[in-house]
């Protein structure tokens, strides 16, 4: 089995050295850099299998770094590391392209479990057979899952990875309830309060994207999930 290539960005030298060494001892191929600028210079599409990124770093902070990484690679799994745990910080991490969020101090065992879970989950998209279709028409809009674009007239919105995956599931379950827990487990990896709060934020963003077409609505089915309603 090939070694998993990890881009690890951490400016705390002692923590970085210990974590990097432990990942190597557990079979990972680790590129450890000390700040966001060095991480961005090291990254290129296909060069790594997963990114482990500290939020607070000199030069380029973790959020800004992942925004740049996402421009080049929409699919590589990203775990944020941070000492901050406010809901706003967690949501911002997901909004900027993170797939998971681990609070410091953490155990190396937990980090590895989360890394392996992300790698397994992102190895192949978890979508229905119907979702293998790439292009969809919905009201005034055209949605292209493969290019992550939502277009209406002369306006084209480039979606984030999570927006793209969430919209795919809503459209392929059009006029039916999309179970909240199922989506949280598929896209966020757990159904904790923080993950659920992040999903709510992304639902709100999708509603804004469809604001120009009154025939399309995304409604909350309390305690169950969401339903995309499309009126003919």
Description:
The chain is α/β, with parallel strands linked by helices. The chain has two domains: 4-122, Rossmann fold (3-Layer(aba) Sandwich); 130-230, Orthogonal Bundle (Arc Repressor Mutant, subunit A). 40% of the residues lie in helices and 25% in strands. It has eight helices and twelve strands. Helix 4 (87-95) links the parallel strand 4 (78-82) and strand 5 (100-103). Helix 2 (36-42) packs parallel to helix 3, helix 4 packs across helix 8 (193-209) and helix 6 (161-172) packs across helix 8. The longest helix has 17 residues, at 193-209. 33% of the residues are buried.
How many E-type strands? 12
The value of Rg in angstroms is: 18 Å
Structural class call reads alpha/beta
Oligomer: single chain
Query: What is the CATH class of the largest domain?
Result: Alpha Beta
- Report strand order across the widest sheet: 2-1-3-4-5
Distance between the termini: 51 Å
Mind telling me which CATH architecture of the largest domain this is? 3-Layer(aba) Sandwich
How many helices in DSSP terms? 8
Order of helices and strands: EHEHEHEHEHEEEEHEHHEE
Q: In CATH terms, what is the fold-level topology of the largest domain?
A: Rossmann fold
Shape: elongated
What share of residues is helical? 40-55%
The tally of structural domains comes to 2
Query: Which sheet architecture does the biggest sheet show?
Result: 5 strands, parallel
Mean pLDDT: 86
Strand content: 15-25%
CATH-level-4 superfamily name of the largest domain: Response regulator
